[in-house]
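can u do me a favor
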């Protein structure tokens, strides 16, 4: 398994998008492992 295949961790995802860990956790749960969808939602929330 490469690094690309690993799911996001809520803390690192929150830092990446400058959002709360709670928001990150909710987004990652909703995205169910889909990194593209998670990143899109993370950008939307960060604005």
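np, heres the sequence
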């Amino acid at each position: 398994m490469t690094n690309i295949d690993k799911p996001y961790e809520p803390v690192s995802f929150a830092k990446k998008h400058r959002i709360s860990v709670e928001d990150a956790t909710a987004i990652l749960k909703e995205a169910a492992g889909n990194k593209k969808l998670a990143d899109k939602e993370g950008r939307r929330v960060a604005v």
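Residues 35-46 form the longest helix (12 residues). hope that helps!!
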